[in-house]
Amino acid sequence: MGTVLLVDDDATVRSTLAAYLEDDGLDVATAASGEEAVRAVRQGLRPAVCIMDMRLPGMDGHDAILALHECLPVLAFLIHTGSLSYGLSDDLLGLGITDKQMFRKPLPDMGVLADAIRALLIQKEEENA
Amino acid sequence: MAQKGREKLVKRFQVASCLLGLAVVVIGATALFGWIFNITSLKSLSMTLVTMKVNSAIAFVLMGSALVLIHTRPQTSFLGLRLVRVFPALTILIGLATLFEYIFKMRIGIDEFLFYDNSSPQKIVFPGRMAPNTAFSFILLGFALLLTNIRDGKWYHPTEMLAVVTFVVAMVPFTGFLYGVPELVRYTNRFPIMTLHTSGAFLLLSSGILVLQPNRGWMKLAIDPGEAGVIIRGLLPLIILILVLLGWLRIYGEEFGLFSSVVGTALFVVLRALIIGIIIIGVARVLYNLELQRRQIQEQVENANAILNQTVSARTAEIEAARLQLKYQHDFLGKIMESSGALILVIDPARRILRFNHACEETTGYAAAEVLNKVFCGVFFNPLEKRDFCQAIEEVYAGNAPDTREDAWLCKDGTTRWIRWRGTGMAESEGPVTHCIIAGIDVTERKRAEERVWKNEERLQGIMDHLPVGVVLSTGLEQRILYVNPCFHEYFPPSDQENEKMTSWWEQALPDPDYRATIQWEWERRLEEASFLQTEIQPMHVEIAANDGTVKYMRVHATVFGDLTFITFVDLTERQKAESARRLNEMRLEALLNLNQMTKASMKELTDFVLEEAVRLTGSKIGYLAFMNEDESVLTMYSWSKTAMQECAMREKPLIYPVKDTGLWGEAVRQRSAVITNDYDAPNPLKKGYPEGHVPIRRHMNIPVMDEGRIVLVAGVGNKNEPYDNSDVRQLTLLMDGMWRLLQRRKHEEEIRHMRSYLQNVVDSMPTMLIGVDLDGTIIHWNREAAKFTGFSDEASYGKEIGEVLPQLHAHLDKIKSAIREGRGLERERISMRNSQDENQIFEIMVFPLIANGASGAVVRLDDVTTRVQIEEMMVQTEKMMSVGGLAAGMAHEINNPLGGILQACQNIERRTSLDLPKNLEVADALGVDLSKVREYLAKRDILEFISCIRSDGTRAARIVSDMLAFSRRTDSQLLPTQVEEIVDTVLRLAANDYDLKKQYDFRNIKITREYEEGLPEVQCDKTKNRAGAFEPGQECGPGHGGLAGQGDSQNHHSRLQRSAPSSSGGD
Q1: For the range B36-45, what are the long-range contacts, defined as Cβ-Cβ under 8 Å and sequence gap of 24 or more?
Q2: What 3-state DSSP class applies to B626?
Q3: Which of A104, B10, B170, B400 has a Cα at 20 to 30 A from B1027?
Q4: B1041 or B739: which carries more pLDDT confidence?
């Protein structure tokens, strides 16, 4: 199974979600900002899936996704945002991200997110196979 | 005599000089010829075998030629001016060069420049070179000729001095040759000698130069015709010649042994004394004879003087007597001149003033001393005028007798005086005119008087020429015309025959003989009457038909001055016409006045009245009036005059006349102007005749009446006794125009009444109070809405101040008046007023100043905006709510993050305390903890329940936030298929959060019953708006606030949400 890169500026959300995914048997790496995530990838981190919060200090989630995609085109994305009005931009739609890959905070059950991650990982494995 | 003798001697001397010069040329040329042809006898005298050198020969030729040229050539010619200076200068150069060779012992090549001197003896070391004294003599004589033109010394002239010195220098070798004394010829053997013919040539040349200018220097004595001249001319050459001869005789006597040296000397002395004594005696005798002649002449002169004195005395006495006589006459004439009132001037041959009498002084302002000896023309005439005058004076000097003239003379003070004058010439015997006598009189005053008369005549004639009345000036008895002014000719244009010569004004003014005879008879009667009564001639009023056919009404007035008759003709034609026109205008105005007073009359009555007046004003018998349709194609006969109706025998009178079918009377339409037919019976292609029974027509005139370029009616009259003219056209046109204007005005008034009623209706129908006020705010108009609001009828409010009827406007009255005065609108203002039912209403007041047609006042408009104000308040509240919603959305977004942390942490707690996760068991074992005991503890202490509650409440809080965000979000209107149940549930869930502690209101206390029919279809709606719309009543859906109902029809596939009206019993 590939690594999951979790990007969220809220430490509680980031740690509790990382704990859940780890309990679920996933390899999780975290970043508190878009810049940190991009830097980690440029330094060699090769996650398979990235969970991205859209409202971030500095580089926002939208720009961070575009930057990460540029560094690692095979990286799949799940969006985890607290904004109910947020909609996917044309840029992100162009990367193949759909509404099904977008999750609103708060999540009453993190299991749906874990399921989505696994689905993406399986899909990638199938594509690689 | 003496002068003539002197001149004669001068000429002789000059001739002698010229001959001497010519002799020198011959001598020089002879020697030169000998050199050229090598003839020794010509180069030298055989006895001496000494040659004249080539340079000497050339020098003699040059000097002799110069001497000859001085006498034979004028000084201004080239030869005379140049050569006489060049030749001596060359001679001087030859002499100087030769001396240079001697002094500096050099040979510069001039000695044998032309010829080799082979004839010289061997002991002569300078062959071809002239002797030093020869060279010296040439230099002296050369300078002598060059200095001929310098000024004399006191007693001598340099030329004379140089000639005498040369003569002496040449005389020495000459006498040496003559007496055979070699010492006098050769001073040293080293130098050549001056030859005999050279010395002789020098003697001739120096003599010629000496007598060259006999009237200068010493030679002045030689040409003296007196004793000094005789002695010099006679004795000096003789003594020199005799002495030389005596010396020669003594020497040759001694040589031939005739006598010894002592005897020779004694004989020489005796002979010399004898000869000198004879000469002195001769001179004395000459002087004595001259003295005798002088004494005789003196005696003759004295005798002649005595005779002359006697004669002069006698002549002097005669002259004195004549002089006295002349003086008397001169004084007599002078007195006459000075006392004369006429201007008398005498001008000398040089045209200068000699005499200037007192009258001249008085007239011109000049004193005699100021003008005497001045040129006459230059004193009294300016340059522009004096030419003519001077010519007249020259005529006098030419011996003619010019006519008397009148000229303007220039006076001393710059003014001019007119002088009538005539010039008379004075001559000595039959000789030419030498003096001119000008006699004149001052006619300035007469001239000025004449000018005044002329000016007055010109002015008078100018006045009469421009008088707007005809004037004839004639002699009283003969009635011969002296003057006729242009206006008379304008009044009575003359025929061609009269133009040639006008002898009497009667024929021209009155061409008709019969009428002229009648008027003449009356004229003469009035003349006799005036003469008899000694009164002025009464003016006559006559009607005159002039040659050009025009008829004029004239007032003729005559005044007699001595034998002159001054007749004036005043043209009253225009006045007569104006008077006639005025009467017609008055009649027409009276008719129009009457027409205007016919306010109750019908249109037919009006047109009949005007038609009758038109017939009367134009002097016609019949008249008609027809109206034109819109496109000017059809005339509709509307009215005939009474006479026409009475005389017309037609059974059926047609009323409709297409213009294209009309005859002559339709021409007014086609030509769009008045048409006059004074001879209706005359053939006319436009005429179509009239039907049987029609009133016979002899004359006809009709006009079109125009309104804004369109013909509206045609009026015509006919059968006037006299021909119709433009005056009739004008009267008919003005009358019909007046009638048409009146008809139009009545029509317009009717339209205005109708329009006023219509506007009042419009104003009353508007749901707005419209109040018209004047400048003072007094009500002049009041619509129904205003009456309804205030309870005042329009009659009750008219004339009252607006603040009196609407006290609420009292505070705004100044603003309203100010807006009216300044002509600007008043800004909208809202005021609160209570209506007649004591209800509070909000009005918006606006003031519109009246600006058109100079109206003063304004319209005050009061709009009831009560409902609009309430809506605006609700909109403000809504905006506030939307602002709050936007704020809540931002806050809700921030809440989601901690909610997420809480819910995720609770989920992890539950998961990490469960026994299902192997990791939990692994960690518990590692710690030595029994995980099942831990779970049991958590269960017994309800900790798991608490965590479950946290997750449940957190989830609910998240939903509330989500619903609130969805509710408050401002989105674009978008209809989407939506389940009715979802909308209702969401609304009710939100409403459940509504709680107002102040009002003791809690939505949850309301019992909500939701009944959904199964299988309800989705409805197309805007979720957000439906939620908001549902929520709005929901907010106040408490008791007394109505309710919300959803209905659907699954079979017809439609659903409906319905808000129920509030009920007094409250909702459930």
Answers
A1: B36/B115, B40/B119, B43/B119, B44/B119, B44/B195, B44/B197, B45/B195, B45/B196, B45/B197
A2: strand
A3: A104
A4: B739
Domains of chain B, by residue range, sit at: 2-225, 226-320, 340-449, 467-571, 586-751, 764-864, 973-1068
Q: Which residues of A fall within a CB distance of 8 Å from B912?
A: 19, 23
- Cβ atoms of residues B521 and B529 within 8 Å: no
Q: Do B896 and A108 touch (CB under 8 A)?
A: no
A115 occurs within a structural domain: no
Structure-block tokens of residue B407: 């000229």
- φ/ψ of B426, rounded to 5, equals -120, 130
State the Cα torsion B383-B384-B387-B389 to the nearest 10°. Answer: -100
Residue A125: inside a domain, yes or no?
no
Report the alpha-carbon angle B572-B578-B579, nearest 5.
85
Residue B781 has φ and ψ, to the nearest 5°, of -150, 150
Distance of CA B11 to CAs B160, B214, B215, B238, Å? 18, 9, 10, 21
The answer to whether the CB of B702 falls within 8 A of the CB of B668 is yes
**Architecture of the domain delimited by B467-571:** 2-Layer Sandwich (3.30)
Q: Which domain holds residue A102?
A: 3-110
- What pLDDT digit, counting tens, does each position of B141-156 carry? 999 988 887 876 666 7
CB atoms within 10 A of CB B666: 21
- Read off the tokens for B192: 């050549």
The Cα B64–Cα B832 span in angstroms is 154
For the structural domain made of B340-449, what CATH number should be given? 3.30.450.20
CATH of the domain at A10: 3.40.50.2300
Quote helix, strand, coil % in chain A, to nearest 5: 45, 20, 35
- Closest to B84 (Cα-Cα) out of B95, B98, B68: B68
On whether the CB atoms of residues A68 and A37 are closer than 8 A, the answer is yes
Distance from CA of A126 to the nearest CA of B (A): 28
Rounded Cα gap, residues B363 and B604, in angstroms = 96
Query: If 0-12 CB within 10 Å is exposed, 13-18 middle and 19+ buried, where does residue B191 land?
Result: middle
Q: Could you tell me if B400 and B386 are in contact, meaning their C-beta atoms sit under 8 angstroms apart?
A: no
Total-model pTM: 0.34
CA distance B1012 to chain A (A): 28
Triad B656, B658, B660: Cα angle to 5°: 160
Q: Which residues contact B691 (CB under 8 A, 6 or more apart)?
A: B650
Token pair for B470: 């005809």
Residues of A whose CB is below 8 A from B907: 16, 20, 109-110
Architecture (CATH level 2) of domain B586-751: 2-Layer Sandwich (3.30)
Token reading at B526: 């009035």
Residue B384: CB atoms within 10 Å: 7
Which residue of chain A comes nearest to B916, CA vs CA?
A: A23
Overall fold of domain B764-864: Beta-Lactamase (3.30.450)
For an interface test with B, the pick among A6, A8, A12, A112 (most B C-beta atoms closer than 10 Å) comes out as A12
Exposure of B632 by Cβ count < 10 A (0-12 exposed, 13-18 middle, 19+ buried)?
A: middle
Is the Cα dihedral B212, B213, B214, B220 positive or negative? negative
Spell out the SS3 assignment of B770-821: EEEECCCCEEEEECHHHHHHHCCCHHHHCCCEHHHHCHHHHHHHHHHHHHHH
The Cβ-side half-sphere exposure at B312, using a 13 Å CA radius, reads 6
Residues of B in contact with A20 (CB under 8 A): 904, 907-908, 911
Cα separation, B254 vs B265, in Å, equals 10
